[in-house]
Specification:
Structural class: alpha/beta
Strand content: 15-25%
Distance between the termini: 37 Å
Largest sheet: 6 strands, mixed
Bound molecules: pyridoxal-5'-phosphate
CATH class of the domain at 88-109 and 227-432: Alpha Beta
Number of strands: 15
Length: 470
């Protein structure tokens, strides 16, 4: 059995994989991490070189579920999770330039990388809940993208009811339709007459209401959930194995368009597991807290500015707390102190020794909207590749890295592409002159029936609505 601990632990409490997945956030406000990281030896890696994606995912995820999910059940969960992807390789690698590859993580049902983890998490939840004969109510607020990925992950499962709030008339038509055309009886789309912040406040208020929370067995599927992280580790291992087998790659750099730090944190775990990661490149837009932190050693929030890469418009990167825990020598007291200070008082700084260690692993690159557009433009011109603005930020980070430290023969850089260009057609057309058409699976979206409820920005009415659904 693999034990899990909270990054803010003050005692010897340990949890198992199922508990950690169902709880999401630890009761002390911390994030769960394994007490010891499983390892894949170089020999085992070598033996897996030609295994398909789902087989690698199983080998990667299995040790994290030790003692909770049996191996066959895990196979079935993984199989169901990735059978809806429209590419046989699940996460194909596209060569862009010498030593530079794009790994496309957007071949799932909602065309964004969130599907890689949420499709897995949906089936995992379903499995655990069936085993326990339990039912969950999942509530969330979305400004567009996460909502549809969560809905696609939970549709048609009678172990879960999903209530997804979005700000009425403030998400794009495609984003709305991706959510509201899912007519499964367990999916409830609610358009709130208010802003995204109003939606988030309503969700927070629901969770803060202990009675309601217990009555409906409330849960969330947000990016700090360990079940999402494990699914993301798999594609880092996959990329390494594929390039090592086909190109003789020995050292690998990953460039990741980053928001909440969930995606790149999975790369950090993959490195701990044995993938020879040379560097992890953080790409940010103008919401650059991580870039500033790596420069200065001080973590300081700023107000969020809207950009052409909205899924990275964040104020803080929650999953970074897991790296902080390691930097502090896994001292939960120290993490608690720092995080409480950060929330109540403001900026915190790490000492030089910690920053040196951090910079050995990570480097950060920032691109504003104009720079992002320029990456999309020259990429298309030079290689014919069309990237969405999020993916372009990862590719831009990779290009800058290679420019500053030319690659050695057996190095490869993999930039993670996190959204299909058709999800952000206006930005893509503006930069490249090409309007990317919706892939076949979404082409009929405009003709499909929608179902949604409109509610005022009112907690009481929201609670009544949730109670009334059967
Ligand atoms: C969520 C998201 C990101 C950011 O990923 P994190 O795990 O939050 O760092 C980047 N690009 C797209 C398209 C996303 O949906």
């Amino acid at each position: 059995m693999l034990d899990y601990i909270s990054t803010r632990r003050r005692d010897d409490v340990v949890k198992n994989f199922e508990e950690v997945v169902l709880e999401g956030l630890a009761a002390d406000g911390g994030l769960y991490v394994p007490a010891a990281c499983p390892v894949i030896t170089p020999d085992e890696m070598h033996a897996m070189r030609n295994v398909p994606y789902t087989g690698i995912a199983h080998r990667v995820i299995q040790p994290f579920t030790e003692g909770c999910i049996d191996s066959d059940a895990l196979y079935r969960i993984i199989d169901k999770a990735y059978k809806n992807f429209d590419h046989p390789e699940i996460a194909p690698l596209v060569p862009i330039d010498k030593g530079l590859y794009v790994m496309e993580l957007f071949h799932g049902p909602t065309l964004a990388f969130k599907d890689m983890a949420l499709q897995f998490l949906g089936h995992l939840f379903d499995h655990i809940l069936q085993k326990r004969d339990k039912k969950l109510t999942i509530v969330g607020a979305t400004s567009g993208d996460t909502g549809s990925a969560a809905i696609e992950a939970c549709r048609d499962k009678d172990t879960m009811d999903v209530f997804m709030l979005h700000p009425k008339d403030r998400v794009s038509e495609v984003q709305r339709r991706q959510m509201t055309t899912v007519l499964s009886p367990n999916i409830h789309n609610i358009a709130i007459e208010g802003s995204f912040d109003d939606c988030q406040d309503l969700v927070k208020a629901l969770f803060a209401d202990q009675d309601f929370r217990a009555e409906k067995n409330l849960s969330a599927v947000n990016s700090i959930n360990w079940g999402r992280i494990v699914a993301q580790i798999a594609y880092y291992v996959y990329a390494y194995l594929k390039l090592s087998s086909e190109k003789g790659t020995e050292n690998i750099v990953f460039a990741v368009p980053t928001g909440n730090f969930g995606n790149i944190y999975a790369g950090y775990v993959a490195s701990s597991m044995g993938v020879p990661v040379k560097k992890l490149l953080i790409g940010t837009n103008s919401n650059d807290i991580l870039f500033r932190f790596l420069e200065s050693g001080t973590m300081k929030t700023e107000t969020v500015v809207p950009t052409t890469s909205p899924s990275m418009d964040i104020q803080i990167s929650s999953n970074f707390e897991r790296v902080l825990f390691d930097l502090y020598g896994r001292d939960g007291e120290a993490v608690t102190g720092t995080m409480q200070y950060f929330r109540s008082k403001g900026p915190f700084a790490l000492d030089d020794a910690m920053m040196t260690r951090l910079r050995e692993i990570f480097a950060a690159y920032r691109f504003d909207d104009a720079a992002t557009k320029e990456i999309m433009r020259h990429l298309h011109k030079q290689s014919g590749y069309i990237a969405d603005p999020h993916s372009a930020i990862g590719i831009g980070a990779a290009e800058k890295y290679i420019w500053n430290s030319p690659l050695e023969e057996k190095d490869a850089v993999v930039a993670l592409a996190t959204a299909h260009p058709a999800k952000f057609p206006d930005a893509v057309e503006d930069a490249t002159g090409h309007f990317p058409p919706l892939p076949a699976r979404l082409a009929g979206l405009h003709r499909q029936e929608e179902r949604l409820s409109v509610l005022p920005n009112d907690l009481q009415q929201l609670k009544t609505f949730i109670r009334e659904q059967k």
